[in-house]
Amino acid sequence: MPAGSKGIHFLIKAIFIIFVLSLMVAGMLGCELTGAGTDYSGPMEWLNGWTEALEQAQAQNKPILINFYTDICPACRKLDQETYTDEELSAFLNANFINLRSNAGKSTLFKRYGIGAVPTIVFNTPDGYDKKYEISRFTGYRDAEAFYQEAQAALDKWQS
Fold this sequence. Notes:
Layout: H1 3-28, E1 46-47, H2 50-60, E2 64-69, H3 74-83, H4 87-96, E3 98-103, H5 109-113, E4 120-124, E5 134-139, H6 144-159
Parallel strand pairs: 1-3, 2-3
Antiparallel strand pairs: 2-4, 4-5
Helix pairs in contact: 4-6
């Protein structure tokens, strides 16, 4: 390998490491971008704690919708700003699910479900919190209509 290429490889690795470390530090400091985070203020009725969500789901006999997100995820913000603000969708979700927001960068719940990318939406039975109670899931942005179809399919599967 020529002497100059070793320097370039080192520089590329150093830049990559600095980038990864800066993302980690931003996550640890709780950096939050508009539209993401636990201060969501739209028509969706979100819970932020798993215990409360599970208790409500069991008391009301409803499945749980878990929205795994991070503060730095553009698709997560788009869900907040465009999909969850849809009045018909939010009314359907609020009526049929217990809705839980879980920051995959700050909670350990994502490990139980093997979440590798965000946003990931998991539909879960009210029986417990673990992958074995999962009804279905999808990853990535969905507009209100596509989200409704996913949610309705999960509800139908749970009720059957």
